[in-house]
Amino acid sequence: MNTELTSLLRAAVGDAHVLTHEDPSADLSAWENDWRKRAQGRALAVVRPGNAKEVAAVVKACAAAGASIVPQGGNTGLVVGSVPDDSGTQVVLSLGRMQAVRAIDAANLTVTVEAGCILQNLQTTVDEAGFLFPLSLAAEGSCTIGGNLATNAGGTQVLRYGNARELCLGLEVVTAQGEIWHGLTGLRKDNTGYDLRDLFIGSEGTLGVITAATLKLYPQPAAQLTAWAAVPSLEAAVSLLGLAHQRLSAGLTGFEVMGQFALSLVNKHFPALRVPLWAESPWCVLLENSDSESETHARGQLESLLETAFEQGIVSDAVVAESLAQANGLWHIRESIPLAQAEEGLNIKHDISIPVSRIPAFCTETDALLQREIPGVRLVNFGHLGDGNLHYNVQAPAEMDARAFLQTEEERVNTLVFDMVARYDGSISAEHGVGSLKAAKLPHYKDPVALSLMRAVKLALDPDNLMNPGRVLTP
């Protein structure tokens, strides 16, 4: 136990906001356990600062002591990137107390918010002010803005609004040396040198600590309509996407694809959700039309789109939500797939991106490869077809123990899938990040010049490798 360091940490943030194992009443498990239960670490301390100055003081104390720091938001990540190792020497820097929405600039269409603010709370706050913050994902009730930016989160509306990077205009960051970069600009044009903001977004806490951000807002749409369509193939789903782009243009804000087996798991484990059309079709699509004119106009566009799709044979059946409650129910089915898969047993998750035009061929070839290599393997394929991001997950054969499958087959399955992703000019991480789970894989699939540049950036900004070491880049 480094008593000198913990004394400095207590002085920086107050005794009540430094938790250690020396205190028998302190339970650090919420900060030390990975959300997917893939890893359990042991922290020297969990420190909960209340503002950027306190974060800076914590970072300076840790840097002086040579103690590495693990920044943490909602701890909902999927690549083991926000929990400490088991050495008992790392400091978990939890941003959970920094939750304020500092300001909404209506004329500039921006909001400035602290890193610990839960995404859903931000959505509600700006909605009450008459605006839309379009970042939306399944973990929005617990994930935080800082974590969203640190991983460059995607979600269901990337098709229209882009990833977290595209939604951010400025940052406040504490550097690895404990200095504060005051970069909370709301400017959409600023050509005064390197774009430092984009270095920190997606860096997973390896370069510095994001403490606040200025984000883009949008006017609320006059109407949002959701449709659920059964399609005969992935090729048909891609054709429907093209038709939706043509007919709905910027109004197309969501386009999700879900395989039959993925939906069968929701039907099995959450029958009350009443999954539509899944039993009769190999694939279903969930699409959303956001309209600035009226619900009547939006419904007319959507119905015209579906009529044309029926005529072309790319949709076999469809349901259009008649109310907001029905629309939310359809989206809830989509967002319940990971939960249903967890109920089915441990599994191997992949968060990949492929050019949309090549997704059908990728799935055909990779499905066949996996089923040939592991007879009976079950594929849980779903995701954001509109932006080329699939959650191409692998479930053990029904008769095989899931934990044994994970232990014996994960490395082989990952290599088979990632090699195919590379063949199809894709990425092994679309929106979840690299963390420690994929760090050793990155050198095999990332351009060597790109990796060299990334290492140079890391060395320049964090020369002592104290910021979330072992994540993204291996030593």
Automatic annotation (TrEMBL):
<dbReference type="InterPro" id="IPR016166">
    <property type="entry name" value="FAD-bd_PCMH"/>
</dbReference>
<dbReference type="Pfam" id="PF02913">
    <property type="entry name" value="FAD-oxidase_C"/>
</dbReference>
<dbReference type="InterPro" id="IPR051264">
    <property type="entry name" value="FAD-oxidored/transferase_4"/>
</dbReference>
<dbReference type="InterPro" id="IPR016164">
    <property type="entry name" value="FAD-linked_Oxase-like_C"/>
</dbReference>
<feature type="domain" description="FAD-binding PCMH-type">
    <location>
        <begin position="39"/>
        <end position="220"/>
    </location>
</feature>
<dbReference type="InterPro" id="IPR004113">
    <property type="entry name" value="FAD-bd_oxidored_4_C"/>
</dbReference>
<dbReference type="InterPro" id="IPR006094">
    <property type="entry name" value="Oxid_FAD_bind_N"/>
</dbReference>
<dbReference type="InterPro" id="IPR016171">
    <property type="entry name" value="Vanillyl_alc_oxidase_C-sub2"/>
</dbReference>
<keyword id="KW-0274">FAD</keyword>
<dbReference type="GO" id="GO:0022904">
    <property type="term" value="P:respiratory electron transport chain"/>
</dbReference>
<dbReference type="GO" id="GO:0003824">
    <property type="term" value="F:catalytic activity"/>
</dbReference>
<dbReference type="InterPro" id="IPR036318">
    <property type="entry name" value="FAD-bd_PCMH-like_sf"/>
</dbReference>
<dbReference type="InterPro" id="IPR016169">
    <property type="entry name" value="FAD-bd_PCMH_sub2"/>
</dbReference>
<dbReference type="Pfam" id="PF01565">
    <property type="entry name" value="FAD_binding_4"/>
</dbReference>
<dbReference type="GO" id="GO:0071949">
    <property type="term" value="F:FAD binding"/>
</dbReference>
<protein>
    <submittedName>
        <fullName>Hydroxyacid dehydrogenase</fullName>
    </submittedName>
</protein>
<dbReference type="InterPro" id="IPR016167">
    <property type="entry name" value="FAD-bd_PCMH_sub1"/>
</dbReference>
<comment type="similarity">
    <text>Belongs to the FAD-binding oxidoreductase/transferase type 4 family.</text>
</comment>
<keyword id="KW-0285">Flavoprotein</keyword>
